TrEMBL record:
This is O-methyltransferase OMT. Gene3D superfamilies: Vaccinia Virus protein VP39 (3.40.50.150). It comes from the Bacteria. The keyword tRNA processing does not apply. The lineage of its organism: Bacteria, Bacillati, Actinomycetota, Actinomycetes, Kitasatosporales. Keywords: Methyltransferase, Transferase.
Length: 279
C-alpha cells in the first residue's frame, strides 16, 4: 500500500521534523523514549525526510526523545492522583503521547489544525478514549469540549506550539486555562530569545528547511513572569530533563543545566492552577 503523503508547510510541517527525530531515537538499541507507534508512522508516510531535514543528528534526536519523555512524566505524575483525568494536547501534531502514557482510564483530546487532524485520523489507531478536534489552539472553544474538568482533572500540554504564537495569544491561552481548569496543570516548552530572533530573521534552518518564525520566546530565568497571566496560576515549576543514554545523554543533561548553554534547547515548565476565588 502506498504511503500517505502529508501536504504540510510552515508551522504544521515542523511536526514531521519532530517525528523524524523521535522515531530515530526510538529505533536505537537503548532508546530514551519507547515509541513504537512513531516508528510505524515513519513507515506509513510518503515524505522525503532526509532530503528535507538532513540525516538524523544523534544529539538532537536524543534531546527530542528526552523532551517528549519529560512531558510524559509530568502527565503521568498528575495521573497518579487523578487517573481518569483528561489530557488536552494542543498542537498535538503526530505526537504519540496517548499510547505512551495510557493507563486504561484517561481521556485524551487532541487539538490541531484541520490538515493535521486529518493526518492523525488517517494514520493513528482509534480509541474510544481519544478524540481529535480540528481547531486552532487559539480558538478557545476547545475548552468547551472537556467533560467534567473539575471532577476528573485536566492536563494541558503544549509541546512545540507556543513559540509559534504571538505573545497576546499565549497569554490568552494561559489565562483561559487558569480561569476554567481549577486544579489542573499546563505543561509548556519555550525557546530562548536569542534563538527565536534567528528564526524571525530567517537565519535558522533544519537541513534544507527554514524554521518558521518563533514569535514568542522566554529565557529560562524569566519563568516567574508566567504568573502574571492570571491570578489562578499558583505554581510555576521548572521541569528537568530525565537522564539520557551514555555520554551523549550526559552532555544533554549538562547543557540543560548550565546558564550559558541551557538556552540552546527548549526549556520545560509546568503551571498549576488553583481553585476558583473571587478575582
Amino acid at each position: 500500500m502506498a504511503g500517505v503523503r502529508p501536504m504540510l508547510s510552515g508551522v504544521p510541517e515542523t511536526l514531521l521534523w519532530t517525528l523524524y527525530n523521535r522515531a530515530y531515537e526510538a529505533g536505537r538499541r537503548y532508546p530514551v523514549l519507547d515509541d513504537p507507534v512513531a516508528l510505524r508512522l515513519l513507515e506509513d508516510l510518503d515524505y522525503p525526510f532526509e532530503e528535507r531535514f538532513g540525516r538524523p543528528n544523534p544529539f538532537l534526536s536524543q534531546a527530542q526523545g528526552l523532551r517528549s519523555r519529560c512531558f510524559d512524566l509530568a502527565v503521568q505524575e498528575y495521573l497518579a492522583d487523578r487517573p481518569r483525568a483528561t489530557v488536552v494536547a494542543l498542537g498535538d501534531g503526530l505526537e504519540t503521547g496517548f499510547w505512551r502514557v495510557d493507563n486504561g482510564r484517561l481521556n485524551w483530546l487532541s487539538v490541531d489544525l484541520p490538515e493535521v487532524a486529518e493526518l492523525r485520523r488517517k494514520l493513528l489507531p482509534a480509541s474510544d478514549r481519544l478524540r481529535t478536534l480540528s481547531r486552532s489552539a487559539t480558538d478557545l472553544s476547545w475548552l468547551d469540549e472537556i467533560e467534567d474538568p473539575q471532577g476528573r482533572g485536566v492536563v494541558v500540554t503544549t509541546q512545540g506550539l507556543l513559540m509559534y504564537l504571538r505573545p497576546a495569544e499565549v497569554r490568552e491561552i494561559l489565562a483561559a486555562c487558569a480561569e476554567r481548569l481549577p486544579g489542573g496543570i499546563l505543561v509548556l516548552d519555550t525557546m530562548a530569545r536569542r534563538l527565536a530572533r534567528g528564526t524571525v530573521a530567517g537565519r535558522s534552518k533544519v537541513g534544507a528547511t527554514a524554521v518558521p518564525p518563533m514569535r514568542w520566546a522566554m529565557n529560562p530565568g524569566e519563568r516567574p513572569k508566567l504568573r502574571a497571566a492570571h491570578p489562578a496560576i499558583t505554581e510555576v515549576r521548572a521541569l528537568r530533563l530525565p537522564r539520557g543514554r551514555g555520554a551523549m545523554g550526559e552532555l544533554i543533561r549538562i547543557q540543560s543545566l548550565l546558564p550559558g548553554l541551557r538556552a540552546l534547547t527548549p526549556a520545560m515548565t509546568q503551571l498549576r492552577f488553583g481553585g476558583r476565588t473571587s478575582y
